[in-house]
Design goal:
Layout (H helix, E strand, L loop, with lengths): L1 E6 L4 H15 L9 H12 L4 E5 L1 H4 L4 E4 L4 E5 H8 L3 H16 L5 E6 L11 H13 L2 H4 L4 H8 L3 H19 L1
Helix pairs in contact: 1-6, 4-5, 5-6, 8-9
The protein binds zinc ion.
Zinc ion binds next to helix 5 and helix 6.
């Protein structure tokens, strides 16, 4: 038996709908480049009055790039990750967007500790880490905006790594196929 956390199931479509709403309310519905630091430092505190964003020294967070405690509305980001994100580094911008995903989706009641038998596996859409990754990718490079673009264009215009751009383009492509089927 292994212990793991199981989240309320969320499909990629559920996640992209949520992102679309968030981007719209934040005033960035049609912007390719999402200003993630402006979002966590300026916008989130307006929407969630007790929201806290902490930049934490490297020694304190160790090998974790960031962490989120949804019940306390708290996101903590390692200092070096924060610095690189402010310089526009895609991977670090995505780390912050990933933590925002945990903040929105993973309040206590949506997460349950579960035990899996060795032959059992958590489904991707009920894995909180998969959900936060899908959210982060979608927030920075939304499938509704990038369809038809090249990997390089997505990476440059959305400020994400080439790898994240590929994942998002694939998701945009699958979404298109689903809706045209
Ligand atoms: Zn995570």
């Amino acid at each position: 038996m292994t212990n793991c956390y199981r989240a309320t199931p969320l499909s990629r479509d559920d996640i992209s709908k949520a992102v679309h709403t968030i981007r719209k309310h934040a005033g960035f519905e049609n912007e390719l480049y999402f200003p993630i630091l402006h979002f966590v430092e300026i916008i989130l505190p307006l929407v969630i009055p007790d929201f806290q964003f902490e930049v934490v020294p490297v020694i304190e967070l160790g090998n974790k790039h960031g962490e989120t405690i949804p019940t306390e509305n708290l996101i903590r980001i390692r200092e070096d990750v924060y610095c690189r994100a402010s310089e526009g580094e895609g991977r670090d911008r995505l780390t912050i967007a990933h933590e925002v995903g945990h903040l929105f989706f993973h309040e206590n009641e949506s997460i349950a500790l579960c035990r899996l038998a060795p032959d059992q596996k958590l489904k991707p859409y009920e894995d909180p880490e998969w959900q936060a990754n899908a959210f982060g990718g979608e927030l920075l490079a939304p499938s509704y905006l990038i369809s038809g673009m090249s990997v390089d264009e997505v990476s440059r215009k959305c400020g994400v790594s080439t790898c994240a751009a590929q994942v998002q383009l694939k998701a945009a492509c699958q979404k298109k196929q689903r809706y045209s089927a």
